[in-house]
Write a structure and sequence with these properties.
This protein is of the alpha/beta class. Helices cover about 40% and strands about 15% of the residues. The chain starts with a helix and ends with a helix.
């Protein structure tokens, strides 16, 4: 592995090998998502506790400070919306020149295995890897399921993750599942980070599935709505950080959440 690739990966994964990515890219298909209408204000108190931002180029330029910024994972796929026919009909939206111009540490792209656009999105990934490897830029594949959330079961997720890794993704973002998630992780030869999916009903549910996933071998999280849509996002961010980087259990994380919440 070239020095540049190693260096970029070292910025994403801390010395403990773990990571806390904060995605704020939801607007690329959802528009002004609740609590993310003003991304700059939303993330400002949370940046201290995350390791990288997952963001589109438009929001990066308009809303993210350039000085002392967190590493950037640039969202480079899109072309569909919630009101369109099929969320899976994505293309690559960002050139390699733009990725370099924005000094991205990594890039992220969705793949929709099992959809009508499976081949298209997998080729998007393969082509992106071909370009980014030339410049030492890691690619994170996002195993998306569009509106069909019932696909979030281990056999399907394991298939998606392995295919993404086989095509050259350096990192895979996928959903946690409550049965056999360890098999999903073991079947993927590159690091697996957990997505949040729909917002959980309680903060404890978030902490529980993140802790469970970490025990099953995930190296970290890429959680958005379950963080910045929380009634107490700073408390949630600190509690998650403790699970990821301080090996806190659910009980300890809940205590941290309550302590911070009561101070604010």
């Amino acid at each position: 592995m070239d020095w540049g690739m190693k260096n970029r990966l070292s910025k994403l994964f801390q010395e403990d090998g773990k990571c806390f990515f904060l995605p704020i890219d939801h607007g690329y298909f959802q528009g002004p998502t609740s609590c993310l209408e003003e991304p700059g204000k939303t993330i400002k108190p949370l940046l201290k506790y995350c390791d990288a931002l997952f963001v589109t180029r438009g929001v990066l330029r308009a809303c993210v400070e350039t000085v002392n910024s967190k590493p950037i994972i640039l969202r480079v796929s899109g072309g569909t919306s919630m009101v369109g026919k099929d969320l899976a009909d994505e293309v690559i939206t960002t050139s390699i020149e733009e990725i370099i111009r924005l000094n991205a540490t990594a890039v992220g792209i969705s793949v929709f295995v099992g959809s009508d656009y499976e081949k298209q999105t997998l080729l998007n990934l393969a082509n992106l890897v071909n370009e980014c490897e030339d410049y030492g830029i890691p690619v994170m594949a996002v195993t998306a399921v569009g509106k069909e959330m019932e696909k979030r079961e281990a056999r399907y997720l394991a298939l998606c993750c392995r295919i993404a890794a086989e095509l050259g993704a350096r990192v895979v973002k996928t959903y946690w599942c409550d049965e056999d998630f360890d098999k999903v992780v073991k079947g993927c030869p590159v690091p697996v980070v957990m997505a949040g999916g729909p917002k959980c009903e309680t903060e404890r549910q978030v902490l529980e599935f993140v802790y469970s996933g970490m025990q099953d071998g995930a190296v970290g999280i890429n959680l958005g709505r379950n963080v910045w849509q929380s009634p107490h996002p700073v408390a949630m961010t600190k509690a998650l950080y403790a699970i990821i980087h301080e090996k806190a259990n659910v009980k300890k994380a809940c205590e941290i959440y309550d302590e911070v919440k009561n101070k604010l």
